[in-house]
Specification:
The protein is an all-alpha fold. Helix content is 87%, strand content 0%. It has two domains: 85 residues, no CATH class; 66 residues. 2% of the residues are buried.
């Protein structure tokens, strides 16, 4: 995982000279103002960055460009998320990284479906959100066999509900026919 310091170094390196001039001291001046141990850490990370494959460096540059285009509020959210991530115990960070890799391996359509599901969870009222999260937690604790059983029960329930709706539609349709026939019969008698 590329750390924020690496990203900061890349931002400084990628920023046009004009924009750096507007920001105040140059990157070099800011670098020289750092304590020697920080300077050495940045040098080490820069060397590590140079060892990355060109595609990875390109991806990092694209991410930095996206970061630079963010509004101050978006940037603050990214910084806060990063701080929370760094504050996690190592095993939790590893789990987050694994989940992120799984997310990245999804197709664009699957990612969008997942984002939409997350939006629904986040916009749900607190009681619904709590129930959804409890269900998700319960799902995670299930064995693969239990999950398959739950999927099968869900499919059966969905099929039963569909059949009930179809039956209700048939009944309503039959009632409309009968009313229509009754009306025709009344009109015919008059």
């Amino acid at each position: 995982m590329i750390r924020l310091a690496r990203l900061a170094l890349l931002v400084l390196a990628a920023a046009p000279a004009a924009s750096r001039a507007q920001q105040g001291p140059s990157a070099e001046e800011r670098f020289r103002g750092l304590p020697p141990e920080k300077q050495e850490e940045l040098r080490r990370r820069y060397r590590e960055l140079q060892q990355l494959p060109p595609e990875e460096r390109q991806r990092i540059q694209e991410n930095l460009a996206r970061l630079n285009r963010m509004s101050p509020d978006e940037h603050a959210r990214v910084d806060e998320n990063y701080r929370r991530f760094r504050a996690m115990p190592p095993e939790q960070r590893q789990q987050v990284l694994q989940e992120w890799q799984r997310f990245r391996s999804l197709s664009p359509q699957e990612r969008e479906q997942l984002r939409e599901s997350l939006r629904r969870v986040m916009t749900a009222d607190p009681d619904q959100r709590r129930q959804i999260l409890e269900n998700m937690d319960r799902w995670q604790r299930m064995t693969p066999e239990q999950r398959e059983d739950a999927r099968q029960r869900f499919r059966e329930q969905r099929r039963e509900r569909r059949q009930e709706r179809q039956e209700q539609r048939r009944e309503r349709k039959q009632e409309r026919r009968e009313r229509h026939l009754e009306q025709k019969e009344r009109l015919r008698r008059h």
